[in-house]
């Protein structure tokens, strides 16, 4: 009886403890990334940003495909993995969403491994370095038992602010559009001439994943630093 009770408690606590440990791990990765960026020579950082912006120019007019649909024509440009890859791990930056108390490392690509360790950037969209005529798309899983990731994305409202940091540059975006679309409807994540957007993308509804939730942000002023600080303590 006692063994069954302990096992039952363990099953109940597993998702909570797992989520807490994963979020601690995410925080450590983010801190290491920021420390690495601080050690970069200024000329190297400037060159990496210039290469990323040149990449964005080269993407204009290319089609965009849903990363979660098999055989969708999704292809990774040859030089993609080398861009903004500061430490060789595929980490390109961070994304912070104060309204849902979330900060995640941001990696290249959308592989299963990437999306179990943070948010992923869809390669056929602009790299998140800002600038007119860009539209970066950042994706994350919903509903994993041991990590929140983008599970709470559905709580965001128009006007909420999120921040993407790449190579020490922080870009803030205010949510200006929220929609649910079919997986093959990529019209809302294409580049618009003269506009700058970042869209956060996840599967929806929870447990079914038949559609995509798109939360788009347009540039805005950076929030105060304390608004970006994570809430201390365990999630229980």
Automatic annotation (TrEMBL):
Domain of life: Bacteria
GO molecular function: hydrolase activity
Any single Pfam family the record assigns to this protein: Sortase
Keyword Hydrolase in record: yes
InterPro entries for the chain: Sortase (IPR005754), Sortase_C (IPR042002), Sortase_dom-sf (IPR023365)
Active site: 141, 203
The protein's name: Class C sortase
């Amino acid at each position: 009886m006692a063994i069954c009770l302990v096992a039952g408690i363990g099953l109940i606590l597993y998702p909570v403890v797992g989520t807490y440990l994963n979020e601690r791990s995410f925080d450590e990765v983010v801190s290491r990334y920021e420390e690495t960026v601080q050690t970069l020579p200024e000329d190297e950082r400037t060159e990496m940003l210039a290469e990323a912006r040149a990449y964005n120019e080269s993407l204009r007019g290319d089609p965009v495909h849903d990363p979660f649909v098999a055989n969708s024509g999704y292809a990774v440009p040859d030089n993609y993995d080398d861009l903004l890859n500061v430490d060789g791990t595929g980490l390109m930056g961070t994304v912070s969403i104060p309204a849902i108390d979330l900060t995640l490392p941001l990696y290249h690509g959308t592989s299963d491994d990437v999306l179990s360790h943070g948010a992923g950037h869809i390669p056929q969209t602009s790299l998140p370095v800002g600038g007119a005529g860009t539209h970066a798309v950042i994706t994350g899983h919903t509903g994993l038992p041991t990590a929140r990731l983008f599970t709470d994305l559905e709580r965001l409202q128009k006007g909420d602010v999120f921040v993407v940091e790449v190579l020490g540059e922080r870009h803030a975006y205010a949510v200006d559009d929220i929609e649910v679309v079919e997986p093959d409807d990529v019209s809302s994540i294409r580049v618009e001439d003269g506009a700058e957007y970042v869209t956060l993308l996840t599967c929806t509804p929870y447990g079914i994943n038949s559609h995509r939730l798109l939360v788009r942000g347009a540039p805005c002023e950076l929030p105060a630093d304390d608004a970006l600080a994570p809430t201390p303590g365990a999630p229980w």
